[in-house]
Write a structure and sequence with these properties.
single chain; 249 residues; alpha/beta; five-stranded parallel sheet; 9 helices; elongated; binds adenine
């Protein structure tokens, strides 16, 4: 998958994404990062990319021309049109579902804004999706774009190590992940839950499901309600599992 990133800070993207799992995915050729510097496409003699806003108000706005020309530079190289995702607090909130949808694309163009935003006219012209990573305002779209790239990349087959699958993670089935334990069996007086040492795999699966359900109910009632709407049969699970795991053990 190729991520084309239109940004004023290409070095920031390359530095962060070349580490760890995304770095390895790039080495393996599963993920490609093409960071395009919007400033390289300005027709201004002084390499300017921003200007005052019409109608007044504080702050500067990124101008349409350099953004559009940076976009054209990428779009003209593509065999078929790609989605253009603008990172903005005004977009729809990024979710695992949206990540899955984007992971099905072969190429994506991510547009990172700065200052007070980007001239609306170029957004109307090129943007297909607007994504926010949460209800807070960052200084630019680079960190949000990295969040999207990281989340989408780990869904691409082969990016996570052999045998590791993304589908037991939190959110893949609409529930939060169950608690996990590694050695030793006892640490600072705390024991690993008995069921995990029982060797009864079906029982372990039920316990994990129960933990996921209870965690989601307590921590994310919004997700829990949605899960019950999608899986009405889950309403009975709680009672059943409370009997099987009375001490939560
Ligand atoms: N740019 C600034 N803040 C943002 C946010 N919360 N999400 C996406 N892009 C942004």
């Amino acid at each position: 998958m190729v991520f084309h990133i239109l940004t004023l800070f290409p070095e920031m993207m390359e530095a962060a994404l070349s580490a760890s799992i995304t770095g390895r995915a790039m080495e393996k050729g599963l993920v490609q990062i093409d960071a395009v510097n919007i400033r390289d496409h300005t027709k201004s003699r002084h390499k300017k990319v921003d200007d005052y806003t019409y109608g007044g108000g504080a702050g500067m706005l990124m101008q349409a021309q350099p953004v559009y020309d940076a976009y054209l530079c990428v779009a003209q190289r593509l065999e078929k049109p790609a989605r253009v995702v603008y990172m903005t607090p005004q977009g729809s909130t990024f979710t695992q579902k949206k990540a899955e949808e984007l992971a099905a694309e072969e190429e994506l163009i991510l547009l990172c804004g700065h200052y007070e935003g980007i001239d609306e006219r170029v957004l109307e012209e090129i943007v297909t999706d607007e994504i926010s990573i949460g209800d807070y305002v960052l200084t630019g779209g680079e960190l949000p774009a990295m969040v999207v790239i990281d989340t989408v990349s780990r869904l691409i087959p082969g990016v996570l190590g052999n045998g590791v699958s993304a589908d037991t993670d939190s959110f893949m089935d609409g529930l939060l992940e169950y608690p996990q334990y590694s050695r030793p069996e006892e640490w600072r007086g705390k024991s690993v839950p008995d069921v995990l040492l029982s060797g009864d795999h079906a029982k372990v699966d039920r316990w994990r499901r129960y933990q996921s359900l209870m965690r989601t109910r307590d921590r994310r009632p919004d997700l829990y309600e949605q899960y019950l709407r999608d899986h009405p049969e889950a309403a009975d699970w709680e009672e059943k599992w409370k009997k099987e795991f009375p001490e939560n053990k």
